[in-house]
Specification:
The chain is of the alpha+beta class. Helix content is about 20%, strand content about 40%. The chain has two helices and seven strands.
Length: about 150
Amino acid sequence: MIENKVLRIDEILELLPHRYPFVMVDKLEIIENGIKGIGTKNLTINEEFFQGHFPNYPIMPGVLQVEAMAQTAGLIVLSALENPEGHSVLFMSVESAKFRKPVRPGDQLKMHIEKIKERHNIYVFKGMCYVDDVLVSEAEFTAMITK
């Protein structure tokens, strides 16, 4: 179980199996242990996806915004476990995804995530992404925690 309220990248890499270029969370602030948190992704022009999406007007793909929300949710749950090593978070479904504004190089994406249901090892989350306090995307999604 992670005791401190803010997870930096070294602690995030201990919990998540993802590695560059697919780590979508640079920092996590735990708001309510195991329930709610805010992940941060700092976006630079050096992100690989900006090179092809789109070269003349680079934007972060919506599917990667959903992935950033899912990784944040996984970190919130894993950081609350007594022994998180050996556990994985598997994405099961996404619903009600909405993409409202483009996310561009130089933006700081804030993923506000809250667990809204839990049944056995299945969790449902509500996620909302913000840039400069403006809602840019949102989704509800389901994940399974496995050993």
